[in-house]
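SECTION: protein entry
WANTED: fold as tokens:
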Amino acid sequence: SVTIPDSVTEIGESAFSGCANLSNVKLSKTLKTLGSRAFKDCTALTSIVIPKTLERIELDGYYTGPFGGCTVLKTVTLESGMTKIAELLFYNCSSLESIVIPDSVTAIGDAAFSYSGLRAVTIPDSVTIIGDSAFYNCKALTSVSLPDSLTEIESSAFRECTGLTSMMVPDSV
């Protein structure tokens, strides 16, 4: 297990990548930036709490999220007060089946949930923008509830979601 102290605002690229026995992570309450592949292939990590202060993911040119390859990550808690789900945050988290998005979130970043195992998602009324490829290739996704507050769904947001057979897009988009 690892506890990141509140004095840490950034975790660098591949910082804990490949720590196969890492099962418990407590992130800093002041974390602003997560490096690409920061927790990649931490195959014992089953849950994580993402602090409301997280703003962005450092990109590495390979389009790799911080939790990619975390094949048993099933439980994610997004702290209330978070305003944006950072791009690539749960990219390739194949076991992530559900998530509760807090009412404080106004935007879902590019590829935030691409290649995840999400089955259903309810987007709260606070969200106005769903980023490019946000749910790309979520093949298990069968249900999406979009709010009337939504104004923009960017390119390929739900592309290759082969389990999704219908969705009501609000007039506000």
Observations:
- DSSP finds no helices and 13 strands in the chain.
